[in-house]
Each structure stands twice: as C-alpha cells, then as structure tokens.
Amino acid sequence: MSNILPAGTPAPDFTLQATPDQTLTLKGLRGRPVILAFYPADWSPVCGDQMALYNEVLPEFQRFNAELLGMSVDGVWCHAAFSRDRKLHFPLLADFEPKGAVAKLYGVFREREGIAERALFVIDKNGTIRWSYCSPIAVNPGADGILEALENLPK
Amino acid sequence: MAKLKVPVGPDDHVQGPADAPVTLVEYGDYECPHCGHAYPIIKALQRRFGKQLRFAFRNFPLREIHPYAEAAAETAEFAATQGKFWEMHDLIFENQNSLSEQMLGELALRLTLDTQVLTEALGSGAFAEPVRRDFSGGVRSGVNGTPTFFINGHRHDGDFELETLRQAINKAAGK
Where residue A139 falls among pLDDT bands split at 50, 70, 90? Predict the structure, then answer.
C-alpha cells in the first residue's frame, strides 16, 4: 500500500503541463484551497467516472473558492482529448515526464503498474495538506470526503 | 462506508410502505445506460419483496456527458406535480434509447400532461431545484456514479445485478 502524505505535511510544490502550451505551478495557487485528485488513467469506461463526477460537483467546490486539479501519468495530448470528450471544466495535469514524479512525491505511485493511485488531497490556502485519502484502486471515492475536508478548513 | 445523509422523507418519490423493513434508494440518471439496465431489476425486486421493500428514486443527472439527463429529470419532477412521477419515470427508462426533448414531450402527451407547461418549465428551469437538491444530497452521501444504491442508509458497493441486490436486501432485512 502507498505511503500517502498525511494531513499536516507541507504540500510538495510541482510544475506540470496543464495543456500542450501551458504549465501550472502549485505554488501559484496559494491563497485558495486546492484539491488534488490523482487517478490511474484517462478513458475509464464507466459512466460513473471519477472525473466526470467531479466535473458535475465543481459548483460545490467553487463555493469554497477551491481549485480542482486532476492528475494522472497520461500525456498532455491524451488529457486534451479526454477532457474534450468528457467536457471537463477543470485542468488535468500530465504527470508524464519523468513518469509519476509528482505522484511519487505525494506517496501515491504504484511502481508495479506505473500509474497513480486513486488518491485525494485537500491543501489549504497556505500550502499545507489538510486531508488525504487513498481509495482502493477500483473504487471511485466520490466527493463527500473532499467536501467535508473543505468544510473543516480553518477560515 | 458511505452513508445516506438525507433520510427518505416527504420530498421523496417513494413506492412501497413507509414501515417496510428495507428501504432501497437509487441515485439515478435517466440517460445512463447502467441505470437503464438496473430499471427492470428494481421492478423484479419489488415484485419479489412486495411490502417488505420501500423504493425511492433520486435524481443524479451527469449533465455534461448526458445531454438529456437534466431535462428528463425535470420532466419527471413536473409529472410528479400531477401525481404521475412513477408513470413518467417508467416511460423514460422504457424509452431511454431514443431520449430527446421531443420524446419527453411525447411521453408527457401519453400521460395527458400539459406539454405547453412542460416546455415552459424546462425553459425556465422551474423544476431544476428538486433535481439540484437530490444531486447535492447525493454528493454529500458519497454517490460516486450512476446508479448508486443505498440499502437502509448504507451505500451498496457491489454490482447491481438481481441476485446481488436480492442478497443484500435479504441481509438488511435480517434474513
């Protein structure tokens, strides 16, 4: 099982491609809460896809002024196609080269398969992890844990 | 394990007696093929368990991937105001493969509902609120896709084939 970074840990900074011509740096989001949603791969075949669910829950996240970032080891063009197909309204970051480097930093990389766990982090506006959760890889963790963590953030 | 945060109450669309030993809640999307698959299975469970089972359907439309899911949910809510929620719920699932706004209007006609009022209501979002309320409560309860079932308040994480649900309901009933 993973050694997922626990609550209270400073969130390791990273810069990743968000689109073919744009990068995103975690530190650049200071001042507002950030939700990191690591997942194994784009193109999960079910309707109840985790990213599709979060796409629908975005207004609830935005009530907390929170920024949602999806992350997997898929490349930036793969993310672009997936995002367009599912009409996602939040960035998918490509943890692609070196593969899974950010997932490793957060303790949620599965060496054997070479993919990220289904892992969630809620980071406060000062860059400290306030909640983390690693779901069994086949189980979509839903959004209730994220919302509860956002509610519990110090004002 | 995820638990239902909003108990079944007067705002719900319910079949079966209030004092049934088992309550099955479905969070569903009228355009979701898996919910379409579950539809006859629920019917079979209701036949099998009779008065032992109470069933509630709540809306969980995945609007971005299912363009007619919201309109379908609002149409069923509109039908509910005329006492025809379940008739509409059933008709929509039975015609899921050809879902469109026009088809929803045709279903309304079949139930002798006022299609003019329906069209206006869909345009103005007059029935969006109960759908939004269901969705929001579902998210809080750990709904992670469609369909998601809760049996006596606990999320059912297994598959939703007849035999699996039958056993889960039996277990909840203490049998």
Answer: confident
Note whether B139 contacts A60, CB cutoff 8 Å. yes
Asked whether residue A10 is assigned to any structural domain, the reply reads no
Give me the residue from A53, A88, A89 closest to B145, CB to CB. A53
Closest CA to A129 of A111, A116, A146, A143: A146
Q: Does A50 sit within 8 Å of B33, measured CB to CB?
A: no
Specify the number of domains making up chain A: 1
Q: Return the exposure string of B81-107: e unless at least 16 CB atoms fall within 10 Å of the residue's CB, then b.
A: eeebbbbbbebbbebbeebeeebbbeb
Reply yes or no on whether A134 is catalytic. Answer: no
Q: In CATH, what class is B13-172?
A: alpha beta
Distance from CA of A37 to the nearest CA of B (A): 14
Measured in whole angstroms, the distance separating CA B86 from the mean position of its chain's CA atoms is 9
pTM of the prediction?
A: 0.90
Helix (H, G, I), strand (E, B) or coil at A34: strand
Could you tell me the two tokens for B161?
């084939």
Predicted complex ipTM exceeds 0.90:
no
Tell me: the pLDDT tens digits for B88-139? Answer: 999 999 999 999 999 999 999 999 999 999 999 999 999 999 999 999 999 9
Does residue A109 fall inside a structural domain?
A: yes
Check residues A135 and A48 and name the one with the higher pLDDT: A135
Q: Which domain holds residue A64?
A: 36-151
What CATH number corresponds to the domain at position A135?
3.40.30.10
pLDDT at A19 over 60: yes
**Cross-chain residue pair B139–A144, CB shorter than 8 Å:** yes
The reply to whether residue B139 touches residue A55, judged by beta carbons under 8 angstroms, is: no
Q: Say yes or no: B84 contacts chain A, CB-CB below 8 A.
A: no
